[in-house]
Amino acid sequence: MSTSSTGWVTEYYAAWDRADADQIMQWFTDDIVLEDVPTGHIATGVAQARAFVEHAIAMTPGTTYEIVHSAVTDDAFATEWIMRPAGLRGSSVGTIRDGRITSNRDYWNAASVR
């Protein structure tokens, strides 16, 4: 898994598109922190992150992500996305270490759903 370009973002969201919790989890470090900012939910560590991922997949069956734009540096990323078919617009911002995600904060606006 390389973070040298935005290509890894496509691979990461493809795992979400497939609802593949095992593949998603491979992108995270052991000390991962996931935060869903609008709901205030925070998952820290692998066990909580897996529960978060599995819950998200169960709550949004058939969801795919359209990547609008991504910016990646050696240690950080930001991605704007649209969750389909709902049309929910949002973004993910986080940090990277050794090619894996160490933190991810999701920002979204339910008012964008038509």
TrEMBL record:
UniProt key word Transmembrane: no
Annotated SnoaL-like domain residues: 9-103
InterPro entries on file: NTF2-like_dom_sf, SnoaL-like
Alphabetical keyword list: Isomerase
A molecular function (GO) term: isomerase activity
Pfam families for this protein: SnoaL_2
Protein's name according to its UniProt entry: Ketosteroid isomerase-like protein
Organism per entry: Gordonia humi
